[in-house]
Every structure is written in C-alpha cells, then in structure tokens.
Specification:
This protein is an alpha/beta fold. 36% of the residues lie in helices and 21% in strands. It has one domain: Alpha/Beta hydrolase fold, catalytic domain (Rossmann fold), CATH 3.40.50.1820. The protein is built from nine helices and eight strands.
Length: 258
C-alpha cells in the first residue's frame, strides 16, 4: 500500500496542482489485474486531504484493491469557467483520469472508473460523471449540494449564508441561463436521454437531518420522472463525516457490483 501527495502541471488549470492518491500496490490480491479507479471530491471550503483525514477510505481502498485519487477543487463546484485556468470539470473529467491512467497501473475501462464526492463534491461527481459518461461508469453523490434551482432564482445583490451572488455567477454562469446550461446536471441528463447515450450508474445518499435533504429529494424525483436508473438512500444523519463515512462504505460495495 502506497499513499501520499503528488504534483503535476495541469493544462486545464494552468498551474502546478496537487492530488492525494492511495495505491494498493503491495498485496497479493488481483496482482495481475489493473486497479479500479475512484476519484473522490471534497466539499466547499475543503481540501484534497479531507477524505484521508476523516474517513476510512485508506482501509476501503486496501481491502477492495481500488486506486483512490483525491484532487483539489477549491470552491469551484468542479465546473468549467470562462476564465483561463478555471476548467475544473475538464480537469477532473478528462485530464486527471488520463494522467492517472498513463502513470499508474489502473484500468482504462469506464466500468472500472468511478467518481464520488460529498456536498459540493457530490454535485461535482454528478455533474462531471454525467458530462463525461465515456470516462466514468458510476457516480457516488453523498449529501449533494444540488443548489441549481436556488441559484436560478438569484438576483444581483442577493446570495445566501454561504456566498454572495457574484460568487455563484462566477461558478455557474449567469443564473438566468442555468435552466438550459450544461452546468445544470438535469440538462446533462436530458441531453444524454435525447442522444440515447448511456447514463452512468448513480448512487445517492442523504441524511434526514441534512440541510440539503429537500434538494436531494427533488433531484431524485427528477431521476424517477426521467426513468433514470439510480440507487437512493435516506437515513438518520447530518451533513458530516459520520454520515459520509458510513455511506462511503456502502457505496464502495455498490461500485463493485456488476
């Protein structure tokens, strides 16, 4: 088992970036098979070490022979911006998986390549997985910050307790365009259905005391109405690692199902 932090030059972000990696490379399990790859995203105001510091991801990676990569998304919502060096979706969905596949003994198959996250990272996992369905076979979204409908209603000078209007406009683009923008996961799903493309498997979970519960319920209802196959769990819990740690383990078992 190897784990640590690596730096490389990102063309998408126009700078040297760091990511954490867990590489089960010294056990006897499946030694001749490429590793499956799980990219895990952190939440708002987080860092790429949050999963390592607060969850059992190290043990899960080792016991299930999974390479886990944890990039830094800053507070980007993992979306592409128009400014130079703000192509976060392209970074997570294309550049980072390509670099990992080139550098480490991981599978190049999309069915062995997954993306997950919590809160802002849950949104990022859904958006990135749906935007790059040829890269990712499955998506894990825990307590996802599915706030697009709220952002659509924002006017200049408004905001919420997390951030102001200018921040949301920078991340998502003009709110009035979000109902048809590809920054909206619902738009991505509609486009995949229209084009008859395969939609990655979706696992979602949210705590019943979580402040984002209603947003997650609304998105799950959209999936049901759109006849999109998904797995959703509600359970007692709040917006914290007690809940995410519990359901990361459940999600990993779901990822390994065929």
């Amino acid at each position: 088992m190897a784990y640590g932090s690596l730096d490389f030059n990102s063309n998408c972000l126009k700078r040297i970036v760091s990511f954490r990696i867990i590489l089960p490379n010294d056990d006897d399990q499946n030694v001749n098979e490429p590793l499956k790859l799980l990219i895990l995203l952190h939440g708002y105001n987080g860092i790429n070490g949050d999963w390592m510091l607060n969850s059992r991801v190290l043990q899960l990676a080792s016991s299930h022979h999974i390479c886990v990569v944890m990039p830094s998304g800053e507070n980007s919502f993992y979306l592409d911006g128009t400014a130079t060096g703000r192509q976060y979706a392209s970074f997570v969905g294309e550049e980072l998986p390509a670099y990992i596949r080139k550098t480490f003994p991981v599978s190049k198959k999309k069915e062995d390549t997954w993306i997950g996250g919590f809160s802002m990272g849950g949104f990022g996992a859904l958006h990135t997985g749906l935007k790059y369905p040829d890269t990712f076979g499955k998506i894990v979204a825990l307590s996802s910050a599915l706030i697009v409908e709220e952002v659509i209603q924002m006017k200049e000078g408004q905001g919420n307790e997390i951030a102001n209007y200018d921040y949301y406009r920078l991340m998502f683009g003009p709110p009035e365009t979000l109902s048809y923008s590809e920054n909206n996961p619902k738009v991505l799903i509609r486009n995949l259905i229209k084009d008859q493309n395969t939609i990655p498997g979706i696992f979602m979970a949210c705590g019943t005391e979580d402040f984002l519960l209603e947003q997650n319920r609304e998105f799950v209802e959209f999936l049901r109405e759109s006849n999109v196959e998904h797995h959703y769990i509600e359970d007692e819990g709040n917006h914290n690692f007690d809940f995410w740690n519990k359901y990361l383990e459940v999600a990993v078992k779901w990822l390994l199902e065929r």
